[in-house]
Amino acid sequence: MELNELTARQLNERLQKKEIKAVDILESVFRRIDRVEGQISAFTSLDKKRAIDVLSSLDKKGKTEGNSSLYGIPAAVKDNICLKDGKTSCSSRVLKNFISPYSAAVIKKLEEAGSVVFGKTNLDEFAMGSSTETSFIGPTHNPWNIEVIPGGSSGGSAAAVAADEAIFAIGSDTGGSIRQPAACCGVVGMKPSYGLVSRYGLVAFASSLDQIGPITKDVYDAALVLGVIAGSDRRDSTSIPDLPKKDYTTSLSAKVKGMRIGLPREYFLSGLDSEVEEAVREAVGLLEKSGAEIMDISLPHTEYCLPAYYIIATAEASANLARYDGVRYGYRTSRQMDLGQMYERTRGEGFGDEVKRRIMLGTYALSAGYYEAYYLKAQKVRTLIKNDFDEAFKKVEAIITPTIPAPAFKIGEKIDNPLQMYLSDIFTISVNLAGLPAISLPCGLSKGKLPIGLQIIGSYLGEEKVLNLAYAYESQTDWHRRKPKLT
After folding, report:
1. Considering 157, 177, 239, 446, which one is annotated as catalytic?
2. Active site residue 153
3. Is 177 considered catalytic here?
4. Are 94 and 321 in contact (CB under 8 A)?
5. 176 in Cβ contact with 425 (< 8 Å)
6. C-alpha–C-alpha distance, residues 116 and 122, integer Å
7. Residues of the chain with pLDDT > 90: what percent?
8. Rounded Cα distance, 47 and 55, in Å
9. 3-state secondary structure at position 34
10. Active site residue: 91, 92, 153, 318, which one?
11. What backbone torsions phi and psi does residue 445 show, to the nearest 5 degrees?
12. Is residue 171 over pLDDT 70?
């Protein structure tokens, strides 16, 4: 196998044995990028020189005991996460040439662990989308079939990992934007508990929902990366204070005997693709044979998740995106006019259709006369949704659902039908509303040879149980080893 095909864990073992150098890994990654990036379009920018300089310095120092398991492993990062002196475009015309003056907390943690960012990955503009089609630079293609979407909004990160263009990647998840593309691309994607990973340096979409997390080739690597990027941060007011440092790989075990797993009946109704349901139920059956106790449960307010989410998310987006006005930084219209018209032209020309749609929806929901009817009511529903999960976790230790209702659809198929597009996230948004941890991992292939994702949800700060259950399932299957056939 080429080095770019290996996991971070496998590469770390070779680095410790001095069989390879960190620069060798990066060179292997870029050879792969040269071969397939023209088909995938996973990246918005690449910086090979900077990465080689950093890794060459690490190679000179040598691998010593006590270094992080990510020491010398290059990382790809979603292009809505700030990298000092690098472009952070959010795949938008508004920030097309923006150079960040600082690095996000998560990037700092990766660098302190000995990793280096070599590229920024494509996304739906400002992370608003489920298909990575709303990007200003154009869509990303799914490595399993370049005619279908990779999922979104972290589609570039998931596609890069699936195509072996990256060892691991970092994404952000507002309503499923890590898990949904991970399911579409047949890789592992984890959304941590809200506040576990600092959002400092993440360009905000919906501040009460956004969370940064890893996209990896297997569950072990997800645990490995999470252990590096998690932790308290005084610069992020939503960060959980006084978090102890954890190595999440130590909780991984193939044993699930006696673990109580809930299957919410609201997630297995009509409309769910038959192949997806069959694959998920087979996965559940495998865990049951391993000794897990399967229980039917109810999350009665599930039907209200989608409307509540899209009111809250768009309201917060309209507030967060007000700063892009053409005055302080970013795109400004070239047409000469008064200040008010300059604002209007700048935002009209700079934002894409989906971003403008969400800004208008959010502004409407927050406007006088509608705040209580929409936004306040959505927040009350959010509390009911969280209460549903709290009650469920009194009976079970984890919840299993499909990640997405159907395999990836063709590029362009739903771009003009936003309501159909929004339904792609129907199984993932409740997790963000409740602030819970969840992981998606591959559990099958459709007849069309497209990946199917299994979602495991845990209680707040229950990452260890989520990872353990995912690892137990993965250790009995080979879905995570299946690779797309790219030429």
Report:
1. 177
2. yes
3. yes
4. no
5. yes
6. 18
7. 91
8. 13
9. helix
10. 153
11. -130, 140
12. yes
